[in-house]
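Justification of computing resources. Each target in the renewal requires a structure prediction run like the one illustrated here; the chain below, 90 residues long, is used simply to show the kind of job we budget for.
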Amino acid sequence: MPEELPGAVDRLAEAIHTLRWEARAGRPLDQTRNTVLDGARLAGRAYHRDLKPFSDAIVIQLRTMASDLLRATGYEPETANRMVREAAAS
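Resulting structure tokens:
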């Protein structure tokens, strides 16, 4: 398993906690968004390695989760998907 996969999971889990904290505090959701994009970048790096089928499925799920989290911060689906694609490609 590429080392980036656990890192991506950790970053998205952190984004969920950050989203809850920022939303409850009435703060802008910038830190959540940045953390989500970090997770998407790590998932993208993992995808570009030689993946086994199960790892490939995990990357797809992580990218979907990242898009869903960005949508939860207020982005439209098309924008969230584009942001995740761009982050995963960087």
